[in-house]
Amino acid sequence: MTVQSIMTRNLRKIHPDKTVKDGLKMMHERHVRTLAVVNEDDQFVGLFGLRQLVDLLLPKAAQIEFGLTNLSFMPDDMGEFYHRLQSVGQKPVSQFLESKDDLLLCSPETPLPEVLELLHRSINTSVPVLVVDGEKNKLVGMVSAWDVLEKLVMNVYSDAGNDAR
Prior knowledge:
Layout: E1 13-14, H1 20-30, E2 34-38, E3 44-49, H2 50-57, H3 60-63, H4 78-88, E4 98-99, H5 112-121, E5 126-133, E6 136-144, H6 145-163
């Protein structure tokens, strides 16, 4: 089994010049955690999602590796978080996305065991599925642990129905 048979093809995409506010609105309206960022040529640039939102809301000292772990000094009200978000809301998502160069990627032909390993190592909830055509990287889907689980459950139930006969 390959990624092609389980990946999600109906992706939510955003242009790198759209604002963080636009991205958050789109994520909320479409009930998604991550948006694929693609340029005007539909070439994959990176991901913008809840992970980046959390980074925007935390102080810089908490974002660095081995940074602050005690954040009790931070105000515990939504007003402070709202203010932090307002300050970056008009900036383009391109300033905050996770670049494709920093992501674990796969192709439609990637075998299931390999994608499971990528999902295990990935800090994101999904792995982008790309088709490389010359210099262009076209995003054709995303595969998540949920996609794998859904396929496995469907197979388990269909096998259980066959075993009962």
